[in-house]
Amino acid sequence: MAVKVIYNAKTSRIGVCNACESLVIHRAVAKQAIPFIVDALKEKNVEVRGDGYAMQCDSRIVPATDEDWGTEYLDYIISVKTVDSIDEAIEHINTYNTGHSESIITKDYNNANRFLDEIDAACVYVNASTRFSDGFEFGFGAEIGISTQKLHARGPMGLKALTTTKYVIYGEGQIRQ
């Protein structure tokens, strides 16, 4: 499921704001999972940039720089960061994300819920592609724009203007066609 979701999120349309630009993976599964993920991404000639441990897991991964963690490539490039815990993953994502769309692929209910609660993004997913973050897909009709801001009103405001929406999406491996 992870390979399918990551492949879809990165390669279905590279130049969009809901494309996957960075992968954070737990070291406990990295040696097993990374080669399969890289195999799939290489079908589309995606350049994979990673930290030292990611490079140990697959020789096709080239070194990443600190700049890579927060780069929105809009290209066939992805960064891979390995972590030891959900705490480290959440901290890394909240440090470098755009506030747009984030997804966790997991079987662990507690990690999924922590991710949904603690990730600072407009759309958070469990076991589904970030490519669903789209006004049309959410049933809004044509998408007019994307906002990752938390306060959108100007001028006099009532209670409704002081609230924001965070979309929480649960999946079982869904990808956007």
Question: Could you describe the 3D structure shown?
Answer:
There is one protein chain. The chain is α/β, with parallel strands linked by helices. It is built from five helices and seven strands; from the N terminus they run H-E-H-E-H-E-E-H-E-H-E-E. The chain has a four-stranded parallel beta sheet. It is globular, with a radius of gyration of 16 Å. The two termini are 15 Å apart.
Concise structural overview:
It contains 5 helices and 7 strands; from the N terminus they run H-E-H-E-H-E-E-H-E-H-E-E. With about 180 residues, the chain is an alpha/beta fold.
Shape from CA axes?
Answer: globular
Largest sheet: 4 strands, parallel
Question: In which order are the strands of the major sheet placed?
Answer: 1-4-2-3
> Mind telling me the C-alpha Rg?
16 Å
Portion of residues in beta strands equals: 15-25%
> Unreliable segments (pLDDT under 50, ≥5 consecutive)?
none
Name the structural class: alpha/beta
Task: Please write the string of helix (H) and strand (E) elements.
Answer: HEHEHEEHEHEE
Helix fraction by DSSP (H/I, runs of at least 4): 25-40%
The number of helical elements comes to 5
Average pLDDT, all residues:
93
